[in-house]
């Protein structure tokens, strides 16, 4: 689990770096500009890293399933080499994900004025600027996002259904609490992350309220990465103990 959490931390650094620096620069600048190639690159990295996070959260759910439902076999099943292979698979799958969508968008004609009504470049606001029918693009986006987001979410859900069934069979209340506590952080992150992206990307309509889209974008691009370190840190006994020791040392030095 620590291996996956460290990869998730590194992933979210890139995930936020794809959008937030440019977004902050635009907030401070009177001329809010981005080139078309820069916009496509921003969309590519944002979606590829977002897809990688979906796959990684699924892998973490599988890790929790093995740890709770098959604890005696866990050390032999979830080996370091398997962790590495799963992580590499998540990255490769994520990086390859938005290639088809980016290719289709790059061929669209844009007549102007090209004002993106969003806080960063994304498929829905860019498609709304095209001066041609984008039904095919919307359909491709819907199919790819549905397969990617819904499939991983259902896999996570099936893992937790089996985890809950196993935990309910534990006779002691203390054992149940301990088992659930190992999943609480991951489940919280999954609910926040998927709760926003499901409403944003698994839809066929080309446009929703701008305020609706922006609010959801802030949740999954800013708030979720901001909360994740606190969720995983404050739920972890080792990290809390390390923080207490550090505070004691600071007071002693002071």
Please give a handful of descriptors for the protein shown.
254 residues, mainly alpha, Rhopdopsin 7-helix transmembrane proteins, 11 helices, globular, cell membrane, receptor, sensory transduction, transducer, membrane
How are the SSEs placed, and which strands pair?
Layout: H1 2-17, H2 20-28, H3 36-69, H4 74-77, H5 80-96, H6 99-106, H7 123-127, H8 135-168, H9 173-201, H10 210-234, H11 237-253
Helix pairs in contact: 1-3, 1-10, 3-5, 3-8, 3-9, 8-9, 9-10
Main location: membrane
GO molecular function: G protein-coupled receptor activity; olfactory receptor activity
Transmembrane segments: 149-168, 180-202, 214-234
The CATH class assignment is Mainly Alpha
**Measured distance between first and last alpha carbons:** 36 Å
CATH topology name, in short, is Rhopdopsin 7-helix transmembrane proteins
What is the 3D form?
A: globular
Q: Care to count the β-strands?
A: 0
Domains counted in the coordinates: how many? Answer: 1
> Biggest β-sheet: count, sense, barrel?
none
Report the CATH superfamily: Rhodopsin 7-helix transmembrane proteins
* Pattern of helices and strands: HHHHHHHHHHH
Strand content: under 5%
Share of helix among residues?
over 70%
Report low-confidence residues grouped into runs of 5 or more: none
The value of Rg in angstroms is 21 Å
Helix and strand composition category:
mainly alpha
Average per-residue pLDDT, rounded, comes to 85
Tell me what the CATH architecture is. Up-down Bundle
Discrete helix count = 11
GO cellular component, one term: plasma membrane
Protein name: Olfactory receptor 6N1
Membrane topology: Multi-pass membrane protein
Domain G-protein coupled receptors family 1 profile: 1-232
